[in-house]
Structures are given as structure tokens and as C-alpha cells.
Write a structure and sequence with these properties.
alpha/beta; 4 domains; protoporphyrinogen ix oxidase, domain 3; Farnesyl Diphosphate Synthase; 20 strands; single chain; 723 residues; elongated; five-stranded parallel β-sheet
Length: 723
């Protein structure tokens, strides 16, 4: 005897069938029949015994039965149950025919070169189920069809990720080849069960795609239709919990299963049904957002926007992403070189979170506490080292153990920290320089020289004589008034492009974003008080719903109406320079991964071989950094190399007889925004006079100096304001 639709559905125990509890009896019965049809045709394609030819015959018969359901008298018992459902709820037969086409794609072992090819499969086997289902649920707004399409993609990509190992056992790999190539992984490795970091990155890309579709679907659902979509929302709760579990397990779906136990499913169904009884605010619809500038701020904004369900177009005038935090290959040596040496601290929590979100956390060298070695004219190493003491004692331990400070300096060194703690808004010293603030805090010339000037130059790229006391106070609060790890110095173990750029680009692309490198924005087109389009090279216009500008202040100003308040506000902004000198020696010359220099025009010597230990190196090399390099940015290359070599030989005994094999000098005239008190009033916030134009960039008013942390904060803030 043929099974009824209700019997087939009851036996399946699927997440979809579980959601039917939220429907009234009539719709529940209709959905049971629809689901039974989906189950039966899927089982035909999945049958491991049935010959291929027989599968195709049976699926062909179901095509004929669906046509008869709409216009005629079907012969199969389940089809006779399905016919009145199709007619009563006016389900377009093409949705059911597409489901059959989708499962037919599984008869042959599938191979998908691109996501777009896989998307067609997902549309057929999942989105079309949703499109048929909403006819039973009922809806008033056309956006419900978009909701069903997107939610189907979210469910199917979650299934694909969850079932990687099971599908491979059935001879199927659904991960598209382009994802595997992005991750540096291969089908052959997956077939052999080789699960490594590259495999997890490939799994992560599918997870990011799935997350994007959940968010986009939520944006498409009109609140007026939401009560009718209760079953779909129940399914969303269950399926998304699978995705959350996968993410919590480091995307290792191979060794650590992500299927939910029955009790967890029941709990989530109950929780979802309670949530759906509440009043829900109207969601912001998904938008096409242009992000101008692919520096760190632009990348952070684009990643967050993509995850929020928006369609992102990232536009960058240069041929590479990363802005002032990218790396390139030095032709004479073949080594990866950063365009500027960036130092992070443990208090850069947003940056660490961003790096973690794009799958690059393992590429960081993270210190557990404060440990900074310095060399001075007197010779020898003095360490500013907390030795792992807990806060707030770790700072006292570091200061009292710092050999460059005398007894009185050590006692008074905590005064600026206390002053920063008492003036959390920075209002008292807003118009003052760091030198004025330190003088008020009774800091001696030696304390300024050995402790505060190096910290100020590293964090603000500006000497204490001209640097903003308010911004410096914020750095002090974040670094020394939190966790002990907040003061730890963090370096990248690879080039900055690999750390900050590659993973972000992968996430944006996986979420359907478009990255246009070598494409400059020439003008913002304003209509009716909004940005309507971005004019690109060649005069073409890109229509947009919103724009996030992550451009430098000068580039942004050229896109704005000259008479606008924003253009006038940012006109006085100026940059501060950094010079980096890279030296390759014939032998190892540095005994520490990084060293701060006192009494020197050079502020840092960095041993890239020691820090970037995940990169290949052609030979021993060091990078010397001159911050706030106003007196050196116009110097000739040979003079800078001579200066750097002289400082190496002055402070590093091993460099005395070493020979320079290669050298390379980088000058960044506008490396950072000048961190001076007079600049602060000209730093704009994220919002502008135009409701759909938002600003990001380390030069905007983030409350921090111009740093990677400020860039990430600004990008995420702008993305949140888009909605």
C-alpha cells in the first residue's frame, strides 16, 4: 500500500517537518503533502541501489504527474493528494518541476566550478520549496518571494556545510571549485580526507555565504507578512543554530558533527514560537552599498555589510587592496615587504576581532603582557616588562623594573596614567599637547625621553611637543587601565596583505560582493538630497542605495561639492610622515624580534625574519622605522640608508662588520593624520548631511589617533549606520 503524504512526513523527522507544528491544521496537512513530494523525488535521486536510467525514468514520471496535478488527473497516490493542494493554494507548477530538475542534478556526481552554478542547484532544491510553501502560508507583499528565495539558499548552504563528510561518502562534493581555490585547497585533498587549515578556510567561506543569506532573507520579510511565515521562522531558528554550532567548532564539520539533538531542536522550536508572538519592528531592506576605498576601514565596512545581507561593491583606485596596510614582493630579493610597519597592542580589540572574523587570528604573534626592549646610548637592553603580573600591579612592576628610569621617575611615572583615568572624556586636555600634559603630571625630561616620547611616537606618529594630549590619554587608558594583555605588543607573522586583506576579500566575494580594483570613483552624483550614484572612470555611473566612503580625506574632498560643509570642514586636515628603511645583511645582526631605540632618530628596529616566521626570507633583514619623520621624509635614499646602517652599527654589535646586501626605502608622507590638538575639530563623524552617505577611515573621529584600530572601528561603525 502506498504511503500517504502525512505518513512520509511524520517518518522523516526533518527540520522542515518539525516546523509544521506552528501551522493551523489545514495548512499543516497541505505542507505535509508538499513535503512528502519533495522527500519522495529526493529519495529517488539518492537511492544507492537504483540504476541511473531507472532514476531518470521515475523522475520523468513525476514531471508528468505534476503537469497532470495542474491540468488533469494524476495516477500516483501521492500525486492525487498533491493535486488539490496545488489547485487550492495556486502553487505554480513550475516550482515543483524545478524541484525535480534540482534532484535530477544529483543523479550524476555533481561538480560545481563556481558559486553561481551551485546557486542554481540550491535554488531548485531549496528556494523552490520555499516559493511553493509561501503560497500555502499566504502573503501580501511581493518581497515574500525574495524572502523565500534567500532563505532557501541559507538553508541549503547550511546543509551543504553540515554534510560535507556524508555527501563525500555518497560521491558528492558540493563545495564549488572557486571556493577551494581561494582557500588553496583541492578536491583531491578532500577526497583523501585531508582536513587542514586550508580546508577549514574553504568551509568558512560557505558559512559566510550562508550567514549572508540569513541576514538578507530577514531584511526581505515585510512585518505584515511575518505572522504567516511563522513556520519558516521556526526553521530559521533551527537551521541557524546549526550554523552557529559550526562556527563555534572552528568550522571543522569533518571531525566534529553539527547535527542538533532532538531535545535541542524541540527547545529551539518552542523558543522560536514564543519569539514570533512578539511585535517585530520593520527591518531595513537590503541595499546595494558602494564602499569607496579598500583600505582596512573599507574592508571592515564591506565585510560587515556583506554579513548584514547587503549587496556590496568595493571600489579601489589602486590595483591592490589594503591601503596603507598592504604588502608586496620586493623584486630583488623575492621577500614579502609591508608598505609600512604596523604595531598592534592587545587593547586593539576591534582589530583582533576583525582578524578573527576573516580567519586570520592564527597569523598573529600575540604577547600576554607588556614586554618592550629598549636600547640607549648607555648600552645594554632595558625592558619595560610586566612579567605577567595581574592588573593593576603589572604596570607598577613594569615601571619599577625599567632600568632607564631613576627612583623618582618610577614613583611619578604613574601620575599620567592616574590623570588619564580621572579624565576619561579627555575634555580637560583637549586643547593641550602631550608635553603640556606631562609637565602638569611632573614628568622629568628623562621620563619623557625614555618612556613617554617613544610611546607617543609609536601610537600617535607625532612627538610629544605637538601631539594631542586627549588622544594620547585615550591610548594610555586603553593600554594600561584594562587587562594585562591589553598592553601586550602584537605583530603579524606574515605580510599585512595576508593578515588583513586576503581573508576579507574572500568573505566579501563569498557573500556575493563585487571587488573592483584599479577602478577610481570620480564623483558622487547627488539627486534630491541623496547620493544616487557613483561616477567611475570613463564616466559610467554606478547606481547605489548607500555609500560608505573609506577614502583618505583629500580623495573624499575631491568627490564632494566644493561648497559643502563637509568639504570645508576637512580642508585643513594634514598628514604626518613615516619612513621605513629595509636592510638585508649578509648575517644576522639583531638579537630581539623588535627593539625600541632611545637617543636616536630611528625609533624601532624590527627583525622581520624573527617576527614574520611564517614567510620565506632570502636572508637576514631588518626594518628601521622613523615615526613623525618630518625631518627625514625629503631626504635622499642613500642618506637614509647611511643613517640606518650607522644606527644599526651604533646599537647592534653584530652589525659592526656586517655588509648590506640589499636595501629599500619607503616614504609615506601622509602615513597618518596629524595627531595634533588643532586637527581634532576637523575630524568628521560617520554621519553626513546626506542620509545615505557615511564616512569611515582612521582619520575620522573615532576617539583614537590614526591607527589600524581606528580604521576597523570606523568601518564597522559606518556599516552599522547603513542598517
Amino acid at each position: 500500500m502506498a504511503e500517504s503524504g502525512a505518513s512520509i512526513t511524520l517518518k522523516s523527522g526533518s527540520n522542515l517537518a518539525l516546523s509544521f507544528i506552528s501551522l493551523d491544521p489545514e495548512k499543516r496537512a497541505a505542507m505535509s503533502v508538499l513535503y512528502a513530494f519533495c522527500r519522495v523525488v529526493d529519495d529517488i535521486a539518492d537511492d544507492m541501489v537504483l540504476p541511473k536510467a531507472e532514476k531518470l525514468v521515475r523522475l520523468g514520471e513525476w514531471r508528468r504527474q505534476i503537469e497532470l496535478c495542474a491540468n488533469g488527473s494524476p495516477g500516483l497516490p501521492l500525486a492525487r493528494e498533491l493535486a488539490p493542494v496545488i489547485r487550492h493554494y495556486r502553487i505554480p507548477p513550475e516550482h515543483l518541476l524545478e524541484i525535480i530538475e534540482g534532484v535530477s542534478m544529483d543523479v550524476e556526481p555533481p561538480r560545481y566550478e563556481t558559486w553561481e552554478q551551485l546557486r542554481r542547484y540550491c535554488h531548485r532544491v531549496a528556494s523552490c520549496v520555499g516559493l511553493a510553501s509561501i503560497e500555502i502560508f499566504g502573503y501580501r507583499h511581493a518581497s515574500a518571494r525574495q524572502y523565500a528565495e534567500l532563505l532557501g539558499l541559507a538553508f541549503q548552504t547550511t546543509n551543504i556545510l553540515r554534510d560535507v563528510r556524508q555527501d563525500l561518502g555518497n560521491g558528492r562534493i558540493y563545495l564549488p571549485d572557486e571556493d577551494l581555490r581561494r582557500a588553496g585547497y583541492s578536491r583531491g585533498e578532500l577526497e583523501r580526507g585531508i582536513i587542514n587549515e586550508r580546508a577549514l578556510h574553504a568551509f568558512r567561506l560557505m558559512a559566510e555565504r550562508s550567514e549572508h543569506f540569513y541576514a538578507a532573507a530577514a531584511r526581505a520579510l515585510d512585518p505584515e507578512d511575518r505572522p504567516n511565515m511563522r513556520a519558516a521562522q521556526v526553521m530559521t531558528k533551527v537551521y541557524h543554530d546549526v550554523l552557529v554550532r559550526i562556527r563555534a567548532r572552528g568550522f571543522d564539520v569533518w571531525h566534529r558533527g553539527a547535527r542538533l539533538p532532538k531535545w535541542r531542536k524541540a527547545w529551539l522550536v518552542g523558543e522560536a514560537m514564543l519569539e514570533e508572538r512578539r511585535t517585530h519592528n520593520a527591518p531595513h531592506s537590503a541595499a546595494h552599498v558602494a564602499v569607496l576605498g579598500a583600505g582596512v576601514a573599507g574592508l571592515a565596512a564591506a565585510v560587515d555589510l556583506a554579513r548584514r545581507g547587503h549587496r556590496v561593491t568595493l571600489i579601489e583606485a589602486r590595483g591592490h587592496a589594503g591601503g596603507r596596510a598592504h604588502s608586496f614582493r620586493h623584486a630583488p630579493t623575492g621577500d614579502v615587504v609591508d608598505n609600512g610597519q604596523h604595531i598592534l597592542m592587545g587593547c586593539c580589540r576591534e582589530t583582533i576581532s576583525f582578524v578573527d572574523a576573516i580567519g586570520a587570528r592564527g597569523l598573529l604573534r600575540e604577547g600576554r603582557g607588556l614586554d618592550v626592549p629598549y636600547l640607549s646610548e648607555a648600552g645594554g637592553v632595558s625592558r619595560l616588562n610586566s612579567h605577567g603580573w595581574p592588573p593593576p600591579l603589572y604596570l607598577a612592576r613594569a615601571l619599577f623594573g625599567f632600568g632607564e628610569l631613576g627612583p623618582r621617575d618610577r614613583l611619578r611615572a604613574a601620575e599620567p596614567v592616574v590623570a588619564a583615568a580621572l579624565d576619561r572624556s579627555g575634555a580637560r586636555w583637549r586643547a593641550s599637547t602631550v608635553a603640556e600634559w606631562l609637565q602638569a603630571c611632573r614628568q622629568s625630561e628623562n621620563a619623557v625621553r625614555a618612556l613617554w616620547e617613544p610611546l607617543c611616537m609609536a601610537a600617535l606618529n607625532e612627538p610629544v611637543a605637538s601631539a594631542s594630549a586627549a588622544q594620547f590619554g585615550e591610548v594610555v587608558r586603553r593600554a594600561f587601565l584594562g587587562r594585562a594583555s591589553d598592553a601586550g605588543v602584537i605583530f603579524s607573522r606574515v605580510g599585512l596583505s595576508r593578515l588583513l586583506v586576503e581573508g576579507a576579500i574572500d568573505v566579501i566575494a563569498a557573500c556575493g560582493g563585487e571587488i573592483r580594483l584599479g577602478c577610481a570613483a570620480r564623483r558622487l552624483v547627488f539627486r534630491e538630497g541623496r547620493v544616487a550614484a557613483v561616477e567611475l572612470d570613463g564616466g559610467t555611473e554606478l547606481a547605489v542605495d548607500a555609500v560608505v566612503s573609506a577614502l583618505p580625506w583629500g580623495a573624499l574632498r575631491s568627490l564632494l561639492p566644493a561648497e559643502s560643509d563637509l568639504a570645508r570642514k576637512i580642508e585643513p586636515l594634514r598628514g604626518s610622515p613615516i619612513v621605513g628603511i629595509h636592510l638585508w645583511f649578509d648575517r644576522k645582526v639583531c638579537g630581539e624580534p623588535f627593539i625600541g631605540l632611545l637617543d636616536s632618530p630611528v625609533h624601532w628596529i624590527i627583525d622581520r625574519n624573527a617576527l614574520c616566521d611564517l614567510e620565506k626570507h632570502s636572508g637576514p633583514s631588518v626594518t628601521l622605522v622613523i615615526s613623525g619623520a618630518y625631518g627625514h621624509v625629503e631626504a635622499k635614499t642613500e642618506d637614509l640608508v647611511r643613517l640606518a646602517l650607522g644606527e644599526c652599527r651604533r646599537f647592534l654589535p653584530a652589525a659592526q662588520d656586517a655588509k648590506v646586501v640589499h636595501h629599500f626605502v619607503q616614504k609615506a608622507r601622509d602615513a597618518t593624520l596629524q595627531a595634533r590638538p588643532e586637527m581634532q575639530p576637523h575630524r568628521p563623524g560617520a554621519e553626513t548631511a546626506w542620509p545615505n552617505l557615511f564616512l569611515a577611515g582612521d582619520w575620522t573621529d573615532t576617539g583614537l589617533p590614526s591607527t589600524i584600530e581606528g580604521a576597523v572601528i570606523s568601518g564597522r561603525r559606518a556599516a552599522a549606520m547603513v542598517g
